Amino acid sequence: MLEKILLLLSLSFSVAEELCKPGVGEAYKVRFSIKTALGDQAYPWNKNEMFLFRAALAFAMRDYTNGEEFGVSDVHPCNETPRVSFWFVVTRPNNTELVDKGTVEMAIKKSRNRINGAFLLTDQTLEFDGIYPTLAAPVSPDTPPWLIVFGVVMGAVSVGIIALLVYPLVQRKLKKNMDADDEDSDEETGVKTAENGANDGIYNSTFSDDERFTQM
Amino acid sequence: MKLKLPNPGLDDRIPSHEDLERMETEEAGDRPKWDNKAQYLLTCVGFCVGLGNVWRFPYLCQSHGGGAFMIPFLILLVLEGIPLLHLEFAIGQRLRKGSVGVWRAINPYLTGVGIASLLVSFLVGMYYNTIMAWIMWYLFNSFQDPLPWSQCPLNANSTGLVAECARSTTVDYFWYRETLNTSAAIDDPGSLQWWMVLALFAAWTLLYVCCIRGIETSGKAVYITSTLPYFVLTIFLIRGLTLKGSTEGIKYLFTPDVDELLNPQTWLDAGAQVFYSFSLAFGGLISFSSYNSVHNNCEQDAVLISIINGCTSVYSATVIYSIIGFRATQKFDECQGDNILHLINAFDYPETSITIDNYDQVLTSLNQTNPDIIQGLPLKTCDMQNLLSQGVEGTGLAFIVFTEAIIKMPVSPLWAVLFFIMLFCLGLSTMFGNIEGVVVPLQDLRVLPQTWPKEVFTGVTCLISFALGLIFTLRSGNYWLALFDNFAGSIPLLIIGFCEMFAVIYIYGIDRFNKDIEFMVGHKPNIFWQATWRVISPLLMIFILIFYFVTQVTKDLTYLVWDEEASFPVLEARPYPSWIYVIIFILAGIPSLAIPIFALYKFFQRKCCKDKSYKDHPVDTISAKIEMNGKAKF
Q: Could you say which of A205, B98, B282, B570 would form a disulfide bridge with B287 (CB–CB 3.0 to 4.6 Å)?
C-alpha cells in the first residue's frame, strides 16, 4: 500500500515536471514585485504564499468555467527564481490534460482584481507575462467640468458688465431727481417774482400791450 | 551734445508750467485720475511684470550661463531700461496726454510715432489675449481630479491608448490635440475650434469688464491682479523647496558660466529682454503717467518699478526652476527605475539586488557575461542635464513642462488652479496697459465721434480684436501666434523706442525737458540721466536694433510643427511658405513705416493747405480772462 502511494506521488511529481515547462505550450510566467508595491510592509515569499497563489488561480478557473471543480493540485508551478517569478500550468480536475492558454487567460482576466487583492498587489506589481491589464476607461463626466466653470465665469462677467453700464445711468437719474427737488425748494424760499407769482395776482389790462411789436 | 532740431510753435501746442499749476489746483473733471499712488504703482508694475518674466527670463538665464547672465541683464537694466522708463513717465506727466497726443504736441510730424504705438499695442493685444484664452482653458480644466492631462484617452475600440498620445506624452497630447487640435502646417488652417472660440470670448469679455471705464475700473482690478502673482509665487517656492530635486534645478539655473559673457548673443538677448520686459514703446506707460498729479516724483517711480521688475524676474526664475528641478529628478528616477526593472526581470534577480548605486557596475558586468541579452533590452540613457534643459521657454514651459510637474505633485488640482490663476493675473494686468495704449490714442485721433462714451471705445476695440483674433482659434492658430510674437512685437517696438528717445531729447529739447523735470520733481536730473538720455541709451538702442534686425534677416525663417509623420514627438522645423513674407511685412513693416509715412502726409498736408492752417493768437484783454461762469482765470 505504502509503495503504491509512493509510486503515485513520484509519478505525479514527474508528471508535474513534465507538464510545466518554461516557455513551452500552455505555460504562463508570473512575476511578483512585492517590495516595490509594499516597501517596508512587504511579506516574504514562501511556500504558504505559493499555496495561496495556487488556490487563487484554482478559484479563478472555477469561477470562469462555472463550477468545474479545480483544486490546488491542478495548478503546477515550476522554475521559481529569487526574483519571485515562476511558470505554471493548469490541468483539468482529475486528469492531466492541460487547460489551453486562452481559457487560462480569460479566467485570470475575469478574476484579476480578486487575485491582486489576495496579495495586496496591483496589475503592475503582479504581472502575468502576456496578459495585459484591461485598461480602465478614463472617467468622463456627462458635462465636461470646464463648461461648468466657464458658465460660472461668464455669468459673473455678464452681471458685472450690466451693472457697470447701468450704474451711471441710474446715478444720473437719481441726481436729476435730487436736482429737481433742490430747485423746487429754492423756488419756495426765493423772492416771488412776476413770473412765479403771476397766477396769484389780477391781470391789469391797463398795462398790457396789445401791440407786440414796437411801433416805428 | 546740445543738438536741438528746430521745432517751431512748440509752446502753443503744450500747456505751460503756469497752466499746469492751474490745472493742478482746479478740478480737472474730464481727465481721469488715480485714486492713490498705490493704484498707479500697482498698474505700472502689473503692466511691466507679465508672462515674459515667468517664461522668457528663466530660459534666457539658464541658456546664457546662469548666474553670469545677471551681469549683462543688470548692466542693461540700468543703462537702458531705467532711463527709457523715466523718460516715458516724465513726458507723459508733463504733457498730460496719451501717446498720440504727446507726440503730436511735441511736433505734428511725429504723430506717426503715436500711431505706430497704437498699431503695435493692437497687434500685440490680439495675440496676447489669445494666450490668456489658453490659460483660461487650462484653468477651467483644472477643477477636476484627476487632471485631464494626466491620462491618455482610449482609442476607438478600447484596445489601447490613442496612438498619438502613446507615442508622445499625456501633456503633449492634451496641449497639441485636445487644446489646440493643431494641424500639421500653417497653410492648413482647418476650422474654428468651438471650445477655443468660447475661451477667447471669455478672455475678451473679462478684459472688457475690467477696462470698461479705463483706469476707473482697471485701477480697482489691479489691487488683485498685480498682487496675487507674488502670493502664488511664494506659495510655489515653499512647495517647490520641499520637493525632492528642487535644489538641482536652482543650481542648474544659477551655475555661472563666465564664458557666455563673451558671446554677443548673450548681450543682445539681455538687451532685448530688458526692453520688452518693461513694456516700453507701447504707449500705455505714457498714458498711465499722464493721469498723475504734476508734481509726482516720476524719477523715484521709474527706479522703483525697474527694481521691482528685475527682482520679480529673478524670483520667478528661482520658483520655476525649483519646480523644473523636481520634474527632472522625478523623470530621472523613473527612467532609472525602468532600467533596473528591465535588468531584474531579464535575469530574475531579487528585487532589491540592483539599486541606483550599483546599477552601473552590474550593467557592465552583465554586458560582459551576457551581451546578447543586454542588447535586446530597451535600456534608456537617463541624462539629468538633458531633462533639465527640456522645453523650458514660452508656452512649452507653462503648458507642457509645468503641467507635467504638477501632475506629479500631491493634490494636483490645487497647484494647477493656483498656477493658472497666477499666469492669468500676470497677463491680465499687462492687457490693461495694452488696451490703454489702443483706446486713448483712438480717442485722441478723433477717429470716432468724441461724444461717444469711453465704454463704447473700449467695447469697439475688444470686439474688433476678438473678431480678428479668431484666426488664432483655427487649427493652425498656434503657428500664427508664433508668427505674431516673433514679428509684431519685436522690431517695431525697438524702432518706436529709439524714435521716442530721439524725439524727446533732440526735438523737444533736453534743456526744456530738464527744466520740466525740475518744475515737476523739484531738482534737475543728475549727470546719470543726462549721460544715459543723450548718448548711452540711444546708442544701445541702435546697436540692439541693428543686431536684432541682422539676426532676423539672415536666419532661415522656419517654424516648429507638430506633425505625426515627421520626427514625432519632437517638433520639426519647417520653412514658411512664401506668402508668409507678405504677412511678416504687414506685421513688422506697417507699424514701423507709419512713422515716416505720417510725417510725409503731414508735410504734404501743410504744403498744399498752407493758407487753411491758421494759428490762434488770442487777444490779451481783461474780459478774455474772466470766464462766464464767474471764475477768474489768472
A: B98
Task: State how far residue B520 is from chain A, nearest Cα, in angstroms.
Answer: 34
Are residue A23 and residue A98 in the same domain, yes or no? yes
Looking at the whole model, is its pTM more than 0.90?
no
Distance CA B231, CA B237 (A): 10
Extract the C-alpha cell encoding B206: 473679462
Chain A interface test: which of B149, B158, B344, B351 (most A C-beta within 10 Å): B351
pLDDT, one tens digit per residue, over B534-551 is 999 999 989 988 988 888
Identify all chain A residues contacting B351, using CB atoms and an 8 Å cutoff. 33-36, 83-84
Of B140, B161, B349, the CB nearest to A82: B349
For residue B614, the model assigns a pLDDT of: 52
* pLDDT given for residue B131 in this prediction: 95
Cβ atoms within 10 Å, residue B599 = 17
Task: Please provide the distance, in angstroms rounded to a whole number, between the alpha carbons at the two ends of chain B.
Answer: 38
Domain residue extents for chain B: 17-624
Tell me the per-residue pLDDT of A83-104, one tens digit each, with 9 for 90 and over.
Answer: 888 888 888 888 878 888 888 8
Q: Would residue A159 count as lying in a domain?
A: yes
- Best mutation target, A40, A149, A172, to test chain B (most B CBs within 10 A): A149
Strands A75-81, A85-90: pairing kind? antiparallel
Contacting residues of A for B202, CB less than 8 Å apart? 150, 153-154, 157
Architecture of domain B17-624: Up-down Bundle (1.20)
Q: What pLDDT band is residue B146 in, cutting at 50, 70 and 90?
A: confident
Q: Is B155 annotated as a binding residue?
A: no
Query: CA nearest B342 in A: which residue?
Result: A83
Question: Which residues in B have their CB inside 8 Å of a CB on A?
Answer: 136-137, 139-141, 143-144, 146, 151-154, 158, 160-161, 195, 198-199, 202, 205-206, 208-209, 212-213, 217, 344-345, 348-352, 455
Last residue of a domain, one of A73, A97, A128: A128
pLDDT, position B619: 65
C-alpha atoms less than 13 angstroms from C-alpha of B409 in its C-beta half-sphere: 27
Q: What is the ipTM of this complex?
A: 0.82
DSSP label at residue B632:
B
Residue B32 pLDDT class (50, 70, 90 cuts):
confident
Q: Do the chains contact at B140 and A145, CB–CB below 8 Å?
A: yes
Q: What is the pLDDT of residues A28-42, one digit of tens each?
A: 888 888 888 888 888
* Residue of chain A nearest B137, judged by CA positions: A146
